[in-house]
Amino acid sequence: MILKNNICKKDIFYLIDKYSHAIPRVEAEMLLEYLFNCARIDLYIKDFKVDETIEELYDSLVSRRISGEPVQYITGRAEFMGLDFIVTKDVFIPRPETELLVNMTRDTLNVTQTKNPKILDLCTGSGNIAVSLAKLIQEAEIVATDISEPALKIAEKNAVRHNLSDRIKFYKGNIFNALIFAKNPKFDIIICNPPYIKEDELPYLQKEVKVEPEIALNGGGDGLDFYRIIAKESHRYLKKFGSILLEIGFGQKKDVENIFSSYNIFEIYKVIKDFSGIERAMWINLL
Ligand code: GLN
């Protein structure tokens, strides 16, 4: 009898393995981190008690995950640029490829030798770009905008969480319209990861993506609406020789280049590929 009990004793490794056929190990770890309110490493070094209640709670988290809820919405957290962000269903989940835009901002500042840069982050969502930039570029002054009030609330919480609320100003409104209340809205850099999915492709997205806010995904009929607005309006908000850093979707490079080139005031300076070899981040200068 004693022997049998010992064999059946469940531990955290049992839970990590339990759904290895259905979810990646990293997600199992993220759910367990959340369940035990601990750091990932603690799962391996601390001795957590795994009883029936814990197992049931874990089962229910995994079943939410399997039914299509992204792990970040279940745990309320997402990692971006090595920082921890609060996320809810009101915001787009930060993606690793968007880190390219943050790194590109640092390159831009190095090339242009701009001191005390003023940076505008349009469509800030969870505030992941604005907050990481404020953290990485100590002397930067940052303005972030979004049309969604609930998203801005999350972005503000993320700024508070990282002790950066005095460095980032948030404004609500549609793209540049949000800036009517901003003092001297002239920037060295405008950065944006806009919604860029074609409207008629929305129904065919992965089920995990479909639960994200539609306004964070929908780029209009051809997916390019936001690029058109940015190309048309940005010169009013950029300092001379300022830069625009944009995330672009699969296959959009030529179209976005054409939109900007048609104004004859921009130079397409650089396009960077993401980890899958897809052209993902575009650096444009105002001439
Ligand atoms: N700026 C946020 C991000 O890059 C949100 C983007 C969006 O909502 N389209 O993750």
Detailed description of the structure:
The protein is α/β, with parallel strands linked by helices and 287 residues long. It folds into 2 domains: 10-67, no CATH class; 88-286, Rossmann fold. The chain contains 12 helices and 9 strands. It has helices at 2-8, 12-18, 25-36, 42-45, 52-66, 71-75, 99-112, 128-136, 149-161, 207-210, 225-233, 253-261; strands at residues 77-80, 83-86, 118-122, 141-146, 168-172, 187-192, 238-247, 266-273, 279-286. The strands form 2 sheets. Strands 5-4-3-6-7-9-8 form a 7-stranded mixed beta sheet, sandwiched between helices. A two-stranded antiparallel sheet has the order 1-2. β4 (141-146), α9 and β5 form a beta-alpha-beta unit. α3 crosses α5. The radius of gyration is 22 Å and the shape is elongated. It starts with a helix and ends with a strand. Mean pLDDT is 95; it is low at 1-6. It binds glutamine (GLN). Glutamine (GLN) binds at residues 92, 94, 98, 123-125, 128-129, 193-195, 216.
Tally of alpha and pi helices: 12
Largest sheet: 7 strands, mixed
Category from helices, strands and their pairing: alpha/beta
Which descriptor suits the 3D outline? elongated
Terminal Cα separation, in Å? 81 Å
CATH superfamily of the largest domain: Vaccinia Virus protein VP39
Structure summarized in a few sentences:
The chain has 287 residues and is α/β, with parallel strands linked by helices. Helix content is 38%, strand content 20%. The protein has a seven-stranded mixed beta sheet, with helices on both faces. A two-stranded antiparallel ribbon has the order 1-2.
